[in-house]
Structures are given as C-alpha cells and as structure tokens.
C-alpha cells in the first residue's frame, strides 16, 4: 500500500479481510475510488467558489475518464447557475449515463428541460423520476404540477400539487396550489391551503403575505391586516407585506404611520413604482402637494406605462390648479388604462378648465359610455353638456342621475350640484320658452 | 509556558472590542476548508497546539498536516490525498497523555500519537459487482491473458451496468491506451477485485464519560453512505450506521454508550439523526446544500446553508428559527462562553467578517480585511478562549475572547440593516418649479394649446417622413452592422482603423463597401469592399489618411451597399492637426 510506513507495524490489529487484501496488494498500488474527492468538490461548491470548483471538476473528470457521477452533476449545477442551461442539461445527461438509478440526476435533467421551456419533455422526465423514486418525493410531485399548469391542465396539476402538499411543509407547493385555486375562483379552498400551510410552518412570511393579499382581494381588510402583521413580525423588512399593510393604513387616513412603513420598504425596493405612488398619495392626503408631485413623478418615471401614478399626478395637478400638466399626465393615464372611466372623467375636467369644451365633452362621453351609472361621471357630464349649450342632453343625464340616486347613496355635494343644475336648466328652459313666446309675440 | 505572545496593543480601537488580537500571520499560506482545523494538546504537557489540514495548492504543493505553536509552524507531515477532516480525541478517560489525532484522507484514516504515525485504518472494501468479479477472476486464472477479450467483456459490462457500479480498476483499465492495457491487466489480474471506499468527513463522539478529557469513538462518514463508529483503542469498527447518502458533515451529542445521537447532513441538504441500533430519522431537507453544521446550546444543532440562511434545529429535529445572513456563509462553529454559560454561534460571512449570534440574535461582529475561510475555537497554548481564523488568502489570525466580555448587550445594529443610511429623500421646492407653477396657473390654456399644436406638428412630421420612406421604397429596418473608427499615429500620416461588426445573428448582406470621405485629406484607399461578415466577429479595416493642410479634418466613413444611393451607416472621426516636423 502506498502509505504503509504510517501503519507503524501494527497492521496485525486490522481486520482479517483487510489483512488479506493488504498482503496480496503489497506489490501493486491500490486504485483510489473514483469518488475520493467528491467531498472536496462539494465543499468548494457550497462556498460559491465556482472557479476552483470547476478546475477540480475538470481534474476529476479527466482522472475518471468522465465517469465521476458527482463531478458531472455538480458541473451541471454550476453551469445552470451561470445561465448555461443547455450545457447543464448535457452535464446531467452525463451523470445519468454514469448512474441511471439516481433520482437526482433525472430530477435535474427535468429541471433543465423545464428551464429551457420544453415543458413536455420536462414532464416526461419528472414522471420518470416519480417512477424510479423509492419514496414519494414532494419536489417531483410539485414540479409535475407546475408542468401541468404550463399546459393549462389545471385538474391534473391540482391532483399532483395536493399530493405534494400532503408530503411537505414547504411553502412552494402550497403557494402554487392556492394560486391554481384562485385562478379557478375557488377562493375558500385557496384560503384553506394557505391556512394549513401556516399551521405547518407558522414562521413563513411568504405564505402569510399571500394569504393577506388574498383576504385583501376578498375585501376582508381586518384579517388581511392580521396576516401582514404576522409576516412583518417574522421579518420586519419584508416589503411584500409592508406595502399592502401601509396601504390599508393609508385608506384609513393614517398617513404618518403608513409613511413610516413606506420608509422601511424604500430601503429594500427603492425602485418600486407602486411604493412611490403610495408615498405620493400619502403626501397628497397630508396636503403636501409639492412632495406629492415629486414622489408621483418618480413613480411615473419608474413605470411610465402604469395607470395609477399618471392618474394620481393628474389629480394632484388639478388640485394645485395646473390643468395643462394634469391634462398631459391624464392623457398618459388614458392610454395606460383605456378601460378605466376615471382618467377620462379627470381628463374631461382638465380640458374644461383649459376651455377646450369640445375635447372635454368627448372625454366625458367616453367616461359615460364606460361607467353609465357613476354619479360623478353623470353630474360632470351634465355640467359640460350644459356649458356646451346642449341643455336637452344635460337634462337627460340629470334624469339618469336622479334614477341612480334612488338606488345608491350619492355624495351630498353631487346631489346639491345636481339640484342647482336642474334649477338652472329649468330657468333657462323657462326663459327659452319666454324667448319663443316673445318671438311668437313679435310674429304676431 | 505560554505558546501565544499576546499583543495587547495590537490594533487600535480595541477598547470596545470583546476580543484581544493575539496572532496575525498574513503569510502563513494555509489552504484550508471547514473541518480542517483542530486544537489539541498532542503531547499531554498542557500546551495545546493548533493543527491544520492544509490541502496544498494543486500539483505544486501536496496536502499536508501542519502543526503550529502560536504563530509558528513546528512540524508538518505530507499526505498523499487531501485530508477531508482532522479531529483530536483521547483513547482513555482522564488521561491527557492519550491524545490522538485522526486525519481522514482518501480511503483511510491516519492516526497520529504525539504527531508520530501511530496507525492507519483503511476503510473496508466495498463489494464489486459479481459479474465484474467473475470476469477478473477468470482473467486471473488464465495462463495466457487475452487482453482483447477481457476488454470486450468489461466494455459490455460497463454498458450494461453503468459506470457507477463498476470498480475503479475496470474504469482505469478501459480508460487506458490499448497498448498499456496488457501490462496493467497483468499487474492486477491475480489480485481479488476490490472497490475502494472514500472518507468524506470525520468526527468524534464521547464514549461513556462527561469528564474531560474523555475517551471518544471516531465517527467516519463514507462515500458509500455509511457512518462507521471506531473504537478508540483497538480501532475496530464498533458499529455501522447506514445513511443511504454520503454525509458532508457530522455532529454528535450525548454519550455513545448512552443515548448519543449523531446528526448527519447530506450533499443535497438532507438532514437527519441516527443513534445506536436505530435507523436514520430524516428531519428535514434544507432549501440549499449545507455549508457547515455545529452544536447550538447543548444538544441542538445549527446549520449554515448555501443560500445564506442560518437555521437552528432542536435535538428532535424541529426547526427552531431561521435567519438570513448578510452574505455567503463560509464556516460555522459554536463558541461556548464559559464565564456566562452562553453558547454562541460564530459564522464567517464573505464580506462581513465573522458574525456572532446568540440563538437568532446578532450580538457581535468581527470585521476582517479578508473573508475567513475556516474558524476553530478552543484551547491554544495555555489560552482557553482562543479563536483561530484562517483567511481565504491563507493568513492565520488568532483572537482571544476577553474574560470580561459580556454578550448580554445585544448589538444595536442588525448586520442586515447596514444600508440604513440610505436616505428617504423627497425633493424640495425649487425656484424653477415655483415659477413654472405660477406661470401655468395663469396661462394654462395657452400652454396647453402650444403643447397640443407642437405635438400635432411632431406627429405630422413623423407621418410625413414615414410616407416619404414608404414612397421611395427604402428599407428602414435597423442596421445590424456597427462601425467603430479610431485614428492612430502622430501625423502627418495617420492610420484610421475601422472595426466592422455584424451584430445580427445571421450573415450580413452581400455587396457592402466602405467609403471614406474628407475634403482636406488624402485617403488611401477611399473605397474598401467588405467581405461577407460573419455574426459577432469584428473585422478590422485600415486606411491611411494624410491631411493636406493645417486644418483638422473630419473623415466621414460610410457603409454603403451597391446599387443604393444612401449609405446604410455613417461614422465620423476627426484627424487632429499634425505637429510640425520634429527635428530628430
């Protein structure tokens, strides 16, 4: 043996089997195991020392003539981290050729295929992995579910994800399953999945946040707030929970507390358009218009295609008496969200202030066609029609508004304006009648 | 006899630190990974040495075991295989003289006594596949060896079974050049076929006593997925614990004779505990492979994972807490603070030095110039509280925990919140802003009309241009060829170097040529025909230019296509005014 000196003459203490082999092997060097340096590769890999790791892997692959399963496997993992998915697939194929019974090799082949976008082949590989896996593995089941989701086979996907959820407390399959339920409008099931996931791992801030957002969508602000609170107790800087929590506070006019939350979030996501939009609206709520404008402008700059920052900028500019700027941003809002009535309404108001009655009427006609029941749209539409001299349609619109106010509660301010406008229209109607009558008189 | 020269005035600003700087040896050139450090009183004279399993640097330097006294190396032992771990242990209860050092490397564990080779334990061979054994056995019986048929048989077997089940002997044989195969087969064929195993990690477990020093059993993790428990006197296998996967790191709690557990962690992040006579109980699978495993306050375990998380587990395998480290974890050890009975965790994080945690709470940071590759806490020389840190660059740094160190005060700054100074700035009102606002308030309609008409005009211009291009049938797709031109030389003769690159995926158009034009300079050649440009490869083209007068000239370089009037691309370089001829 190579290092016999070290045995120090005590070889007789070794076991019989060893003695036998060492005696016979005396003359020839022992052939080291192919896997003898796997531990070294792994140590370097876990420390993210990929450069050294790759050199060592190459050494091992040359030494073993490419027959080192783990070296191939690890090379695949590193290639994937470097974004070379196709190369990683080749490496995992090599590892599979060395040992086709190892489930991990099949799983990684499938994952690389999935990342390459060939979901069909990925699914086949995952099904193969499921077949050869001795014990049920939630990762495989979860990934099969993901593959089926890609094919939009939701029932199949749900079946596999349910199996995965039963096997693990890991949040990923739970979130995937709940999202599927939400897609199919099965909200109660989704809530159930999240709650059971939280029972399993109460410290998961991801699930708490997702559940909170779901509650928020359902309109259950109280419970949503609770979930965000528990997520933030786990990690106080989790921006995914900070933002909705602060926005709930903002809707309750708790602007200073909301702002302090946004400040924490701004450290992790300083380039979030939504964050700056909300900060801007907090300042607007506090009547600090300059700060509001600068924050909203930042939000608009970060995402020029977004509806809310543009629309909010329009609102703030209308408040500060800058209808020209408001109109520009509201135009952007209109093109960002052509199906929303409020940008059209606001644009109409801005154009009205800019004395462009024709365009204002067009904008409000559009808003009216999108939201024919909205009292705000109706009253403003009536005012503009009146200003344009189309008293008949103005009166029709006001009638529509009265119909609406019979069904829903209308803001007293709107009701008051409507009352005044009706009176004005009646007066002018009367004077028109008088005019006609005078004309008649003249004729006569 | 103090092995450490304590430099109490080492680094400034130690007033607030809980640590004393003892040794800083930047040139120690230690290449070491977690698990490769040990502190052991090798001769039993009460003076503990620092032992390093140095992996060597590739071909130039082989791996070796190095022994340090203070900052100075006293001995070293060369190793053939890189050592995966080094542990010290005692073979007898209460006898410091019985200290032994075990080094796992290759397929053996080398045991040193007083740093002299004492014993070599070889891992038992694994069984080769019966078919493969049969083939070699037959080859051994033959009078005249038929290498060709042996090769063919083994080749077939390799295809049938896959390389993972074949012994390294066969793989080496098949990987050899055909001419070398005969002598190799001749050398080995009469020796029974064996399949070597390999050590992946090494640790110890207390045998039957809680007093120090206590005799311990050696734990050896193997590539075949087992833990071997070795008796400390006879070095025979006492027990074999099957895991099913090769362990990365082991951790023992309790007494082997009692209810001792061994916690093992696998390469894909599997974590489980195993005890005498029981099968493995899998706890959890970590989200990422583990970097290091250590004890956490008594019987619990803490794991640092590759994705920068630090997770605490109870001894039953229940996740106690999890926290996110501010960077990549490199090593993790537990750090018992004797005076206060605390047990801290020391994590080496790339970019942040060593962070100390009491459970999930951050209590102290040690800033280091270089990332720390491996840490070990223990007795060094006479000093009980030494912490040795080996940097990535190979330097050795030893710090000593002050007796007065108090960790009850939590560090005020969370290491993950370092970026707190990131200001939350809201721009203030500027004069320009105010002026614009005032103007807009008074003349909003005018501004709006001006904007609208200018905007209409712009749209009109764009539309007109588009119509023009469409009408003249010009192609207005993006140009996939870039030109980069640079002027070389001092003048009056300049060399203009033009790099033409096709940035599209396919081949370029045919019949492309370059034209260089300048009124004030002679350019040779003025027209250059370009070859077919392959994708992504810059093609250099050089032309000579000589300015005619003293006026700096602009050279227009145009990329044109035969049969088209307008150039496809244009770039311009300026020829500087040449200096007057210098008298040499």
CATH architectural designation of the domain at 271-366 in chain A: Alpha Horseshoe
Tell me the CATH superfamily of the domain at 481-575 in chain B.
Immunoglobulins
The total of helices of chain A stands at 24
Percentage of residues assigned to helices of chain B: 10-25%
CATH superfamily label of the domain at 271-366 in chain A: Tetratricopeptide repeat domain
CATH topology of the domain at 271-366 in chain A: Serine Threonine Protein Phosphatase 5, Tetratricopeptide repeat
Terminal CA distance of chain B reads 74 Å
Give the tally of β-strands of chain A.
0
What class do helices, strands and sheet pairing of chain B give? mainly beta
Q: Averaged pLDDT of chain B, please?
A: 83
Beta strand % of chain B: 35-45%
Shape of chain A: elongated
Query: What's the CATH class label of the domain at 271-366 in chain A?
Result: Mainly Alpha
Helical content band of chain A: over 70%
Q: SSE order of chain A, as H and E?
A: HHHHHHHHHHHHHHHHHHHHHHHH
**Biggest β-sheet of chain A, characterized?**
none
The counted number of beta strands of chain B is 36
Strand order of the largest sheet of chain B: 1-28-27-26
TPR repeats (chain A): 138-171, 205-238, 341-374
Keywords (chain A): Repeat, TPR repeat
Pfam family, one (chain A): TPR_8
Organism (chain A): Cephus cinctus (Wheat stem sawfly)
Question: What can you tell me about this protein's structure?
Answer:
With 444 residues, chain A is an all-alpha fold. In chain A, 77% of the residues lie in helices and 0% in strands. Chain A contains 24 helices and no strands. With 584 residues, chain B is mainly beta. Chains A and B meet through helix 1, helix 2, helix 15, helix 17 and helix 19 of A and strand 9, helix 3, strand 10, strand 21 and helix 5 of B. Chain A: One of its GO terms (biological process) is cilium assembly. Chain A: It comes from Cephus cinctus.
